[in-house]
Amino acid sequence: MKGMVDISEKKVVSRTASASGRIMLGEGSMEAVQSGNVRKGDVYQSARISAIQAVKATPSILAFCHPIPIESVEVGFEDLGDGIRCECIVRANYKTGVEMEALVGVSAALLTIWDMVKYLEKDEDGQYPSTRIEDIRVEEKRKEG
């Protein structure tokens, strides 16, 4: 029978994972983000909140992820000039890793940014010719103890 991995015999240890990704945006969107003039509000604060919520909701989003007692979520952003890089670091003391939570957090943050600036990104046909989310990956995964 297939299903969730049985972690009942694993020991609780300190676990940390970081993930990153980036969203590429047009010049107008970047100027609006940098100046704080996005209609929906503060892009970085909204994306940070979305990332934290997504980290905590990972078992509801990904069927085979165990509910994990998340102890810390850090979300940071870097202005790339032509886009924004996001990094999400997740920590927990548990029986299984937190890399999926970090990946879901980054993904939610980048999707939130897209949602907030999409009115600036659309071309005359309502398409997004230059907007893209890319390079989402686990930067590091650690287990101590």
Task: Quickly list its features.
alpha+beta, 145 residues, Alpha-Beta Plaits, 35% helix
- Note the total helix count: 3
Helix and strand content put the structural class at alpha+beta
CATH class: Alpha Beta
Shape: elongated
CATH superfamily: Molybdopterin cofactor biosynthesis C (MoaC) domain
Give the helix level as a range of percent.
25-40%
End-to-end Cα distance: 31 Å
Could you name the CATH topology?
Alpha-Beta Plaits
Radius of gyration: 17 Å
Mean pLDDT: 96
Order of helices and strands: EHHEEHE
Strand order of the largest sheet: 2-3-1-4
Query: What is the number of beta strands?
Result: 4
Strand content: 25-35%
What can you tell me about this protein's structure?
The protein is an alpha+beta fold. It is 35% helix and 32% strand. It is built from 3 helices and 4 strands. The chain has a 4-stranded antiparallel beta sheet with strand order 2-3-1-4, covered by helices on one side. Helix 1 crosses helix 3 (99-121). The radius of gyration is 17 Å and the shape is elongated.
